[in-house]
Design brief:
It contains 1 helix and 10 strands, in the order βαβββββββββ. The chain has one helix spanning 10-18; strands at residues 3-5, 29-34, 60-62, 68-72, 75-80, 84-87, 98-104, 110-120, 128-131, 134-137. The strands form 3 sheets. Strands 1-10-5-4 form a 4-stranded mixed β-sheet. The relative contact order is 0.32.
């Protein structure tokens, strides 16, 4: 699964996180699964969604500099990260359902989020969910 980030702000995301140049809190991203039946918006904070818990779940760190970048006209236009897989030890706390995933920056702000095509509810030891993080600029001129 991947997502297309709209032009607005996309170049800044690519330049900062994919090129290891983000200041302040750092330039790694946290890949998290959310169990609230809403889609958090870019720029929201962690208080706007419920992160998965229990069942062996832990967020994944997407380290800056570990992306495979594709250049377009001399600047990064897309990037991909190695597939990330969660292997659950059982049901999530409260038998929660995973509705999607999001990337959170080191300052606690949501960079982007996406709902899964179908919700996922881990039940048994060994249930897995895999995501291949990708970012791609859409058509047009980035702002």
């Amino acid at each position: 699964m991947g997502m297309i980030v709209q032009d607005r702000g996309c170049k800044n995301v690519l330049d900062a996180w994919l090129n290891n140049s983000r200041p302040a809190g750092g330039n790694s991203l946290s890949l998290r699964l959310f169990t609230s039946n809403t889609t958090p918006a870019r720029g929201d904070t962690t208080a706007t969604y419920t992160e998965a818990a229990g069942g062996g779940y832990a967020a994944k760190t997407l380290a800056a500099g570990s992306w495979t970048n594709t250049l377009g006209s001399g600047v990064p236009s897309s990037g991909a990260y190695a597939q990330q897989t969660w292997t659950f030890t059982g049901a999530l706390t409260g038998n929660a359902i995973i509705y999607g995933y999001l990337w959170v920056d080191a300052d606690g702000y949501i960079v982007c989020s996406e709902r899964l095509a179908a919700s996922f509810q881990p039940q048994a030891n060994g249930d897995q969910l895999s995501i291949t993080p990708q970012i791609q600029m859409s058509q047009g001129t980035p702002s």
